[in-house]
Specification:
Blueprint (H helix, E strand, L loop, with lengths): L1 E6 L4 H10 L1 H4 L3 E4 L1 H10 L4 E3 L7 H10 L5 E5 L9 H13 L4 E2 L2 H10 L4
Parallel strand pairs: 1-2, 1-4, 2-3, 4-5
Helix pairs in contact: 1-3, 4-5
The structure holds 1,3-dihydroxyacetonephosphate.
């Protein structure tokens, strides 16, 4: 599967912990990420990730384009629900496209856990 990993700044540690814990799972898939999230994950794992731009600089939009082209099978996006983001319109657009294209989207760790253990690509 093609999986995108995204985390807002206050959720990056949680994302790294989650990916480290499930590294053997993620190793079997093709990974994409926004710039800072992906860089930090690669620094903490042996995974290879295709990096998009940082979120505030257009990374969410780049991943949104992949959703629109049906190139992503799963998005794990640990959002920070308590901090305003300068690029909130880009975040909303990405979430909207996931619903437009019926793309699985996990915005918290427990949902992500369920997804990675249960989603099989059609
Ligand atoms: O802001 C983000 C998602 O909206 C994440 O971007 P970075 O991974 O570059 O921090």
């Amino acid at each position: 599967m093609n999986i995108a990993l995204i985390a807002h700044d206050k959720k990056k540690e949680k994302m790294i912990d989650f990916v480290v814990k499930n590294e053997s799972y993620f190793k079997k898939h093709t990974l994409f990420a926004t710039g800072t999230t992906g860089t930090k994950i690669m620094e903490n794992t042996n995974l290879t990730i295709s990096l998009k731009k940082s979120g505030p600089l257009g990374g969410d939009q780049e991943l949104g384009a992949m959703v629109a082209n049906q190139q992503l099978d799963l998005i794990i996006f640990f959002r920070d629900p308590l901090t305003a983001q300068p690029h909130e319109p880009d975040v909303s657009a990405l979430l909207r496209l996931c619903d437009v294209y019926n793309t699985p989207l996990a915005t918290n760790e427990r949902t992500a856990e369920l997804f990675i253990h249960h989603i099989k690509k059609d």
